[in-house]
Every structure is written in structure tokens, then in C-alpha cells.
């Protein structure tokens, strides 16, 4: 939904040249609208912000403290029927959409009566194939960039605030930073301030000095909330996020969910991955640095947080499996990649799989110390040993490859010293971290991500802390020459769509979500 999608903006005086007319809601629709507004804007600040947006006279507002939210909004509805505001139904729907862009009640009415030109809930992006599972995707329809053409092109700051004291503290903190905050809207859990700068990075640096929970909304984006979002944690526990800013990052949500397990949770520091669960039950991998909006996450979306199966690290997948299930999982994973060819022997219950696929990567240099050459065609052998599933399978890269986590299979001193290890893949699931629950679809995805340099390791924590308070690191690689080259050429890794070994710290998005365990 773009800026042009709104046919009229909320609030203000009637414009004689305006083509928009009042929406003729029937009694049932009016009741649904007021009931949903009472639930969404259930405190005095939230109610006041909506009434400000529609231009409702302050002198005619009931005493909020003397009524329940439903009673209060019923009284407001009576006043609106008496004509205290021009085009009240239209303005009320537009004001509600200003905060909850994809609320099904508000949006349904807007679509039904033509307030939204394109209409409909934003479709999720098509499920990405494993080779591009972390690629940036955009929703087929986006939220409006701005709710008012008259608003200055500056940033907004959404702050977690569940009380008047919280709102006052946030206002004071922003004023002390010289940001001249102006309230735009409020709910029971959050408030949006318009500030006087359009410089996103500079604003984030300023906010890093504060103790408030915040999300920065760039001038070109919309400061709306996702009213309800469901997330499964790493152990399957389900959480509900309420009033989640759509401009916070996917990674921020993942970290907040992991934090719910407490400081004693042993895996808190492990990298996370987040999947958007589609209507068919399949997961679509999200980029942790994308915003929820850009990732296509919308009202009542379902996310799944897990721990990254990092090459060279210990990351078991606790799922029961055996030979027949391994075969089914490999074939199912191959169906999603037209470029993947699976060979198996024997046919009935295979113990060896030869997997062919295409993925841009690097092959060994023509001469020692030279530059690696492009390598896109790959063949990997996965061997299930006689003691499988009690003993881990092994994987060997059969085609030439130049990668820190794969033992050299090209002519080199290391390959000549240990010829039996040529092409051996260093994967946590296939080493000391293996469990019989290894999921082979995940294994194939990890192999592809590894060779694409989206998931690889050169260092691992030693368990000791250095003088500077940071964890000390040890080398974690099979191919020393490849490790040295990768460290020296991080720009080429990033240019091909990979991730840096030690990525720059992303801009802090310290919004503290309202999270409930279900």
C-alpha cells in the first residue's frame, strides 16, 4: 500500500473540492469498528490520539476514567452520529489504519468502501529456494509511506510506553537530545514521536545514549504497528507479541524471544535464524537485518526462531530420523530446487547420496597463493555409515572447492598428507554435535549456505575471556589457505551475497516488545 492508496487523509476540516464522501456503514459494521477501536486504543492516551487525528473537539470528549474502553467509545460513537465531526466513519477508519495498517477489521472496511485503492492483505513473498533463502524480499503490497502529505519529511521514533510516566520519560529523553518530539499517535503499549531530523544513523547514535526502548522509522517509511504477532521459540514454546513496530528488525524480534528464556539459558549467545511460516506450513527464511515490514511480516503472522546450524560449530538438530526418513527428507528438499540432482545407492534405502547443484562460490587457485577461480557446479557425497543413525553421516565435496570449512580436495600439501580426508566437510551436525534427529533437508540447506558463504566459520570461542573482556577466539577451519584468503577478501565475499566473518554491528534497534508466553 503506497502513499497514493489513501483517497483522503484523516482529520482536518472538510474540503469543498474533496471527492471523498462519507462511508455509509451499516449498524453491524459500525459496532464492529467501535469494538475493534476500543480494543486497539484501550487507554486514555491512545483514545486521545485517535480523536486528535479525526479532529474531535476536546470539550465534547467524555471522561475516560469514568468508563470502560467499550463504554467510552460507544459514547464517542453517539457523538459522531450527531455530526460533531465531518465524515466521521471515513475519518475513524483512516485514523485507525494510521496506526494498525493491516488490522483485518480496519482494513476490511477500507477495502470494502474504496478507501484503499489496491485493497487486500499484503501477500507474503513467494517461498525462497534454499540457495536464496536469506535474500531480501519485499511484500507484494506495502504499507503507506506516510499518512499525511503535510507531515515534514523527518524520522519518527516509536517508543515502548505502557503508562503516562513512561510517555513523559520518553518525551523528556527526546527533548534532552534536542529532537523536539511531537506526539503523532499512542496506544496502550507504544507512542510514536515525530522528531526534527531526517538523518537515521545520527538519530540512532543519539538514542543509543538513552535507556528507553525505541525503534527509528526513516522519513520514507510508515510508523505503524503489528497488533498481534506469534513466534515459536527454539524449544517450541510459543509467544505472542503485542503492538510490535513494523520497522524493527527481524533480528531484534529473535533476540527478544531468546531473552525470554533467562540468563541461565545456555544457548542465548548462539546465532539465530528466523523463518516466516507460510500458509502451506513451509518456512521462508528471513534476513535478520530486514525490518518486519520489508520481510513481509504482517498482522497475525507466524514466525519460528531457531539456532543457526553454523559450519564449524556445534549445532544439533533434535529430531528423530532413520534411513527411510533421510531418503524422504532429501527428496523433498530437492523438489524445491530445479537445479538439484539426487543420485542414491541402493535405491530402496540408500546409504549413499550424490547431490549435484549449482551455487556461485570459489574453486582452488591455479597456482599456490593465487586467486581462487569461480566455481558454480558442485557435487557432494553424503555417506550413511553402517551404524547410522547412531553414528553421524559424513559428507565429502567431490568437485573442486576452496573453502575454510572443507578439507582441501585439490593438489596441496594438506591433501597429500591426508588423502583420505580430501573434500571432508566440517559441519557441526556431522561431527561431535550429531544426534539421530538430524534433518536432512536442513543439512542440504546448510551445505548450500556454507558454499555460498552465507554460513561459515573461521573462528570459534576458546572459552576464555581476554584482557579486554571479549571472548578469545581459536581458528576453526579445515583449509588454512582458504581461511587466510577469506579473511583478506571479505569485500568479495559480501559482493557475491555472502556474510562477513565478523559483520559490522547493525544499528541498534532496542525496542522492548510486549511479549506474552502462550
TL;DR?
By secondary structure, this protein is of the alpha+beta class. Helix content is 26%, strand content 19%. It has helices at 27-40, 44-54, 69-81, 88-99, 104-112, 164-176, 200-207, 250-259, 323-335, 413-417, 440-451, 480-488, 490-495; strands spanning 156-160, 182-186, 190-194, 214-217, 225-232, 238-245, 272-277, 283-286, 302-307, 341-345, 352-363, 373-383, 394-397, 459-465, 471-475, 514-517.
Structural overview:
The chain is built from 13 helices and 16 strands. Among the domains are: 3-15 and 22-112; 144-217, 2-Layer Sandwich (Alpha-Beta Plaits); 323-495, Roll (Ubiquitin Conjugating Enzyme), CATH 3.10.110.10. Helix 1 (27-40) crosses helix 3 (69-81), helix 2 (44-54) packs across helix 4 (88-99) and helix 9 (323-335) crosses helix 11. It has helices at residues 27-40, 44-54, 69-81, 88-99, 104-112, 164-176, 200-207, 250-259, 323-335, 413-417, 440-451, 480-488, 490-495, and strands at residues 156-160, 182-186, 190-194, 214-217, 225-232, 238-245, 272-277, 283-286, 302-307, 341-345, 352-363, 373-383, 394-397, 459-465, 471-475, 514-517. The strands form four sheets. The protein has a six-stranded mixed beta sheet with strand order 8-7-9-5-6-16. The protein is α+β, with helices and mostly antiparallel strands. The chain is elongated and about 90 Å long.
